[in-house]
Amino acid sequence: MRKKSVGLIATLGLAAAGVSWASARGLGLPQPSNNPPSIREESNRLSSSGTSGTRYFVGGGIIRGK
Amino acid sequence: MKCPNCAQEVEADRRAGHLVVCSACQSTILMDAKATRLAGRMAVLSAPRGPLAVGAVIDLNGETFTVLGRVRYGYSRGFWDEWYVRRENGKYAWISQDEENFTVQRLRDQGKVPEYATTSPGDIVRVLGHEFHVNEKDIAECEGAEGQIPFEVESGERTPFLDLSDGERFVSVEYAIGGAPRIFVGRRIQPTDLEVIAEGFTRNRGGAIPLERDEGEHGRERVVRSGGRTLAIRCDQCDASLPVVEGASHVECEHCGAENDLTVRRALCPACNLSNRVSADASVQQIVCRGCSNRLDLRGESVVALGVLARLKRPNLPVRIGDTFKHEDIEYQVVGVVRWGSYEGMHHYSSSEFLLFAPDHGYRFLIYEDGHFSFSEKIDPPKGADPRSLFFGSQFQYAGETWRVYERGEQTVDWVDGELTWVAAVGDHVSYMDAVSEPHLLSAEWTPTESEWYGSTYLQPSEVAQGLGVPEETLPKRIGLAPNQPYSASKFFRQTGPIAGVFALVFLGMAIAAMFKRGEPVATLEIPGVEYRREYLTEAFRITDGPTVCKARLEAPIRNEWVYLDVALIDEQDRALVDFSTQASYYEGVASDGPWTEGRRHDSTVFRVDAPGEYRFLLKGEASTPNAFRPLRIDVLQGAAISRYHFIGAGLCAAWGCVVWLRGHSFHHKKWGGDEDE
Prior knowledge:
The structure holds two protein chains of two kinds.
Chain A: H1 3-25
Chain B: E1 19-21, E2 27-31, E3 36-41, E4 57-60, E5 63-75, E6 78-87, E7 92-98, E8 101-108, E9 124-127, E10 130-149, E11 158-165, E12 169-174, E13 182-189, E14 194-198, H1 209-215, E15 225-226, E16 229-230, E17 232-234, E18 241-243, E19 250-252, E20 259-261, E21 265-268, E22 275-278, E23 286-288, E24 294-297, E25 304-308, E26 324-327, E27 330-344, E28 347-358, E29 362-369, E30 372-379, E31 395-398, E32 401-420, E33 429-437, E34 440-446, E35 451-459, H2 461-468, H3 491-515, E36 520-527, E37 536-537, E38 541-543, E39 548-555, E40 561-570, E41 576-591, E42 594-600, E43 602-609, E44 613-623, E45 632-638, H4 644-672
Antiparallel strand pairs in B: 1-2, 1-10, 2-3, 4-5, 4-14, 5-6, 5-10, 6-7, 7-8, 8-13, 9-10, 10-11, 11-12, 12-13, 15-16, 17-18, 19-20, 21-22, 23-24, 23-32, 24-25, 26-27, 27-28, 27-32, 28-29, 29-30, 30-35, 31-32, 32-33, 33-34, 34-35, 36-45, 37-44, 38-44, 39-43, 39-45, 40-41, 40-44, 41-42
Helix pairs in contact in B: 3-4
């Protein structure tokens, strides 16, 4: 088998290993932003609506379990 | 003993020979047990064309042979010599010399032989317990003899014969008129195996001028001699008359400056008196006169003009007679050409065979058709192969390769020029079969009297250009595909197909494994039914690895409902790191053809966690109806995997494999048409 073919096999093998690594690390999934918003009551980010119960999601409600 | 006719001392051994020819007067002397008698005269034989000569002592692979006699037989396509030799063990054998092919044969005891009349070239026959291929069927005519011969022959005597072989053994069956058939069995030897220990006493040896001149052959004279005085030759290039100094090997033309080699064989055209130089060896049997285009038959003692080709249109060919062609470090000279034509329906196809000659390597062919070239040589017939029984697509084994029949048909000679080792005429007809094992072509050609096989190898344009010493661009453009033209993609390109296919399967397997990789359970979260109508923060769960792929698996006990959740991953500082959503939808019912269901009650979503720690989900749900806000369960798992990259890898590899396969398939389909099945 030619050197080029061996090289191709090695390259594809490395690609397979890289894909496995990326697959296990979740590469490409949404990453946390650099400045993630807080969901605490006093958070400026979440208290803008002034509507009772609105927190993180639009049309949200009360926070339980805290 | 002395010749009864001229009293010349003649070497004769009654144990070895039944007949001896006087070397002085050519009288045929028959030796009975008690007496000798004259039986006419033999024709003077022309020079032998190799190392053998009557009286010579030859070493053949360590065994010494003494040449006792020679019989020359002529047949429809030329002649051959049979040399009668005594081995060092006192036994006798024959060395058959046909052109450059030598075969050592022994006369075998009588055996059953095939019926001559019903046997044809190409047949498989059984002789002496073995199967043989019939190469040739013809009638030989004795043209003369010299020295001692073990049986009686006469000039002009006609003997039907068959030449057989099985690739290793060569058998000649001679159907002597009025006698039992003679079976000669032997093996092929190389000319280089014959080492001359002692020269023979046959005259005529060699093709150089002094000997030919001394022999006085008609028409072959290069130097005209009269009364011992050399007169003149005609220039090869300009045909001017040139004086020649006796003993000179070259003479320079005073008119055109060409240097004329005086040592080569010549053929003087009886029609126009032009001296034609014969470039190849003594095997040449026909040459086309370059002055008047007469075909000159060189087989006999005198040159015979066979007819003029000048009225035919000269084909436009990319190789010319006199060109050199280098192949595998051997330089050949193009000495002759035969152009074949054949019809397929109304379409006329032409191909050309250029006869190549190299002094130490003999004859080869350069085959040309539609811009494609192949290098070809004559081969021994494949064992047991009958080309007449092979048809398009049929396969057979030869030389460790599988051959597939590409074509069978008939072709005729459209044009001949230059020197040929056989006598060819326009209109000569031959049947042929071509079988392919790329880049090789195995060809059989047969006529009612002869069957021959040739092996060819396809030459790429770069090889042809290099061989001819011309730029590749000057070669004719290739049209279509040649039967033995190999798929031109590089070996590496062809190898990438299977490699990509294997990796496509590898990636696919990895993708399936990733899809079904469940992961390590971290927590099971029970979500009360009504709570997630508004934002709901779940219990904390602990991720112990990171970065890692986590999976949230939703289980919803819904029926004819759907539920949808917005989810945010919340860290220990109550920050929403990432958002994702998950939903379940399940419907069921009964239709006229039975119960049905649609959708599912569970859903899985992957998300990435960069660092170990405690996390919670912030949920906000929607549902198809207020009653659909049912209690939910979310299983959290870590160490899962995503499969999308594996699928992408599998897809790319499969696509490349398909490209490689389609390209090769398209090539072979174009060549083999609808019967392509490779």
